[in-house]
User: Fold these one by one.
Assistant:
Number 1:
Amino acid sequence: MGIKVCKFGGTSLADASQIKKVKTIVDADPDRKFVVPSAPGKRHADDQKVTDLLYLCHEHAKQGLAFDEVFKLIHQRYEQIIEDLGIDLDLSDELDRVKVGIAKYADRGADYAASRGEFLNGQIVAKLLGYRFIDAAEVIFFGENGRLDNQRTYEAFSQKISGDERAVVPGFYGTDHEGFVKTFSRGGSDVTGAIVSRGVGADVYENWTDVSGLLMADPRVVDHPKAIDMITYRELRELSYMGASVLHDEAVFPVREAGIPVNIRNTNKPEAAGTMIVATAKASSDMGSITGIAGRKDFTVIAVEKAMMNAEIGFGRRVLGVLERHGVSFEHMPSGIDTMSVVIADTELDGKLNDVLKEIEEDCDPDSVEAIDGMALIATVGRGMSHTPGMASKLFGALAEAGVNIRMIDQGSSELNIIVGVQASDFKTAVRAIYSRTVGV
Ligand code: ASP
C-alpha cells in the first residue's frame, strides 16, 4: 500500500457540495491518507475568499476598528458548511477564540488572522473524513531567516506522524522561530502539501484544483489548448516564470528534492488523469516535442551598439553596472558581436529609464543606445527542443507566416526553451501561430 498526500485548493472546498466531492475522492483510494486543505475559496466569480475576509479583519483590528460585520460573514460561512454537511461539530468556541486572537495579535502582522481559514476548515474536513486533525503549527517550522526550518520540520514529522495513519494537516501556515503563527505567501497551501508529502514519504503528491492540469497554452489566447500529460520540474519552472500558473513556486522544492512526483488533478473532473510533474522525462521519444507555450507582456529592451564591442574589455560590466546602481534587475541579455540588448520588465524601470539611458551614454560611450518599449516575450518550452533540428525553423516559420516581426531571439543555454520578443500588439497572433505550427490543432 502506498501513501498519497492530497492538497485541495479553495474552490475545491468553497462549500458543502464541493467538500462532499473531496470526500468521494479521498474515499475512492485507500492510499489517500493525508489531506491538506485550503480555506474556503470563491463559490462564484463575485464571492469572497475566506482568507481575503480574514485579511480584512486584520486590517480593521490593526487600526483599532471593530470588525464584527466582516467576522460575521466568516462565522456564517463555516456554520453553513457544517450544517450542510450534517456533521456533528461545533466550531463556535473556536470561532470566538479566533476573533479575540485577531484583535489581540493585530500588531504582530496579518499571519495569525490569515492562517485561521485553513485551521478552521481543516477541522471540518477532518471530522467529515474521520481523519486525525494535526495542527500545522506543530509540524511546520520556520527559522529566524523566515525560511522553512527543514531539520526541525522533518524531525517533527517523524516524531508526530506515522505513515500508516490518516490525517488532515491544514495548509498555508506553521510556527516561526519565536513560536508564533507564520504563513507562507498567498497560495501557500501548495507548499504545505509538498512539505507534508516529503515529511510522510509520500509516493505521490496530488494537488487537487479546479483545472484538469496544465494546458499547453493560455486558454484566453488559444482556443481549447491541449492538456500537458507530463512535464519536468525544470520545464514547469520555465513555463511558470513566463506566466503559466498552477502551483506555488516554492512548492516544487520539497518534493523535487525527495523525488516525489506531483499530480495536478481536477476536483470537478476526478476521472481526468491531470498533469504529472516529474524529475526527469521518461521516453526519449518525447525529446524535441513542445511541452507548452507561455508569455508575458510589458518589457523594455535597451539596445546598445558599439563597433568592436567584442574587443572592449569591461563593456558589458559597465552597462550592467548602470542597471545595478539603479537597482534594476534584468531578465535576458542576448548579444551580437557589436550589439548587446538587455531585456527588462517595465516594473523594474519605473521612472528610471531616462537616467539609465543617460548613464549608459556617459559610462560606455556607445555608438547608439535606444529603448524599445511595448515588448512581449514568448517562451516555447520542450525537452531538448532547441537541439532538435527543425524546431526553430517551425517556430520562426510560423511567426513569419503570421506576419509577426521578431524583435529578439534568446535560446539561452538551456536546452528547454526558445524565447522570442515581439511587439505586444502581436502577442496573441504570435502565440496562436506558434501553437498551431508546433502543437497542431
Ligand atoms: N488560503 C490561502 C490563500 O488564499 C492559501 C491557499 O489557499 O493556498 O492564499
Number 2:
Amino acid sequence: MSKILISGGNGFLGSYLCEKALSNNFEVTVVDNLSTSKERQVPKEVKFVKKPIEKFSTNERFDFVVHLAARPSPEDYIKNPLATIDSNDIGTRNMLEIARKSNGVFMYTSTSEVYGDPKILPIPETYFGYVNPNGIRSCYDESKRFSEALIKAYERQYGLDVRIQRPFNVYGPRIREDGFYGRVIPRFIDQALRNEPLTVHGDGKQTRSFLYQSDWVAATWKLLMNGKAKGEVLNIGNYKEISVLELAKLIIKKTGSKSKIVHLPPREEDPKRRAADITQARKILNWEPKVSLDEGLESTINWLKEKKNL
Ligand code: UDP
C-alpha cells in the first residue's frame, strides 16, 4: 500500500485530494492546523495530526509528500503575514526533509501569484513575474517564490524527485464560504443568496481565470503519478478570463438574486489580469479543464444553498 503525507489536507482542496488517494487505496496522513478550515472534513480512514506544518516532525517514510498547507486568501494572509510565510519557509523545508529521508516524490502547490501583476497574458511558466518584494502581498507571493527556490535546491543538491504546480483560482463546494475569508466566488454567492449587495473592488475590470475543483484534482493526481512530470513546474488553471464585474452579474443571474452591485475601493496591489497558459500541462499531463464556469458555479451555488438550508 502506498503512503501519502498531505500538509493542509483538511482544507478545501486537500480534502478532495485525500478522497482521491483513498479511492486509489493509499494510506493517507494529513497534517493540518485548521487555520483555513473550520472543522475536520476528511474521511475517518485518514490519519489526522492537528499541527502547523512547521512544528511537525516524523521518522515515518512516505512514497508521496504533498505540501499544500497555505493561506491563499489575500484578505486572510494580509492579516497573518508571518504564519503565511512560515508555511512556505520552515513548512516547505520540513516537508522536503521528510521527502528526502523517504526518498519519495515531493509535490508543492505554489501559486499563480508568483507572477504578481503579469505583463503577458495568458501567462506561460517561462514568465518570471512582476512582483513587489516588500509589498502587502509579498508575505504570500514572495514566500511561495522562495519555496520554489528551496525545492529546486533540494532537487539540485540531493536529486530529489520534485514537482511544482501553480494553481490559478480554484473554486467549488467546500471552499470556505463565510464572508470573513473573502475569496471572490464564495463571497459573491453568499452575498447573492442573502440578497445583499455584491462587493466589487475597484471598477471590476480586473480579471481572473477560475478552475473547478475536480479539474484541479485530476491534474494534481496526474502530476503525482506521471513520471514525465518529474522536475516540472506547471500552471494548473484555466485559460478563459472573466472580469470580476461580469462574474458578479453572472452570479446574480444564476442565483436569481435581487442583489445590486456596489463598488468598494480597489484592493492594494490587486493583479489586473490573470489567465493561465496551459500548453505545458496539456503536453506533459495530457490534461485540460473540463468543467465550464457555468457548470462549476451551478454546483457551488447548490452546495451553498444546501449548507444554508435554502
Ligand atoms: N474581489 C472583489 N470583491 C470581493 C472579493 C474579491 O471584487 O469581495 C476581487 C479581488 O479584488 C480580485 C478578485 O476578486 O480582483 C479575486 O480575489 P480573490 O480574493 O478571490 O483572489 P486573488 O485572485 O486576488 O488571490
